[in-house]
Specification:
This protein is α+β, with helices and mostly antiparallel strands. 49% of the residues lie in helices and 14% in strands. Strands 1, 2, 3, 4, 5, 6 and 7 form a seven-stranded mixed beta sheet that branches. The radius of gyration is 21 Å and the shape is elongated. It starts with 9 loop residues before the first helix and ends with a helix.
């Protein structure tokens, strides 16, 4: 299997799931997501697959998983109904698979959480959207359908028109501002080492907010450089971003200058990003 998955791999991957008893007889959509779909994968990348079932349409097992659910090894807790997502971790060809089984109702509830109505009533939607739910939304944005193209295209349209990006940006800026103030306080008290680490955290949250503003959603640093190149923001182009990310200009004999430069960059991003 190559380091990139396309829709042409659909029949093969569906066949592998079916052979292992991990594909329900009825489903709305099966899609692939993650680094392998974006062309960012490598030899050790997991193959992330999502199986979406119709609520109550299958009597095979919980949440539409096959009746012989030996392949389901874990459940991700979610603040939805049902309140958990079954997960299988099979070997698919020469890769480790990660297969999540979501119901359509769960995803509808998740979309309601990131609606503009929810955002306007409570700006910190991040408090009600768990990390598992956030990861599912991030991966949905760049997913490719292995089966059920119309279903996936409609959910991606709903995601693009939702407040999800604004939510990530707002939460990132709030955290960036908090850590920026902490860094300056630590620097002022003579604790430069702690201030360096805190300023780095502030910058990471600000960068994620800027990327969300440009439609590149994510909440971890793992793929930040890839997402940054894809977004190509003008307020802070890749090269100056990378200089800060890699601390290229940090001088251990004068940490205060680097910290103040980073906090200044965080403030410029905050002025650019709309929340």
């Amino acid at each position: 299997m190559t380091n990139m998955i396309t829709a042409e791999d659909g029949p093969h991957l569906l066949g592998l799931l079916r052979e292992q008893g991990l594909l329900p007889d009825t489903y709305l959509c099966v899609y692939a997501a993650g680094s392998l779909v974006r062309g960012w994968g490598n030899e050790t990348s997991d193959l992330d697959l999502y199986v979406v079932t119709d609520d109550g349409a299958s009597d095979e097992g919980e949440n539409g998983t096959p009746a012989a659910s030996a392949g389901v090894e874990d459940f991700h807790p979610v603040a939805l109904t049902p309140d958990r997502v079954p997960v299988a971790v099979p070997t698919l060809g020469d890769r480790r698979g990660d297969v999540e089984y979501w119901s359509a109702g769960q995803l509808e509830q998740l979309m309601a959480k990131i609606s503009w109505e929810a955002y306007r009533s409570e700006r910190d939607i991040g408090a009600t959207v768990s990390q598992v739910e956030r990861d599912a939304l991030v991966k949905l944005g760049h997913a490719i359908a292995l089966d059920g193209v119309p279903w996936l295209e409609e959910r991606q349209r709903l995601l693009r028109s939702s407040a999800f990006g604004r939510t990530i940006a707002a939460r990132g800026l709030d955290l960036a501002d908090t850590f920026a103030e902490d860094a300056l306080g630590q620097l002022g008290s003579g604790d430069a080492e702690s201030a360096v680490l805190t300023a780095k955290l502030a910058f990471g949250y600000a960068a994620d907010a800027l990327l969300a503003h440009h439609g590149e959603y994510g909440t971890t640093a793992k793929w930040r450089s890839k997402r940054y190149r894809a977004a190509a923001p003008t307020v802070l182009p890749f090269e100056p971003y990378w200089r800060i990310e890699t601390m290229r200009d940090y001088d251990p004999d004068d940490p205060g200058r680097w910290i103040e430069d980073v906090i200044g960059c965080v403030r410029r991003i905050s002025m650019e990003v709309e929340v």
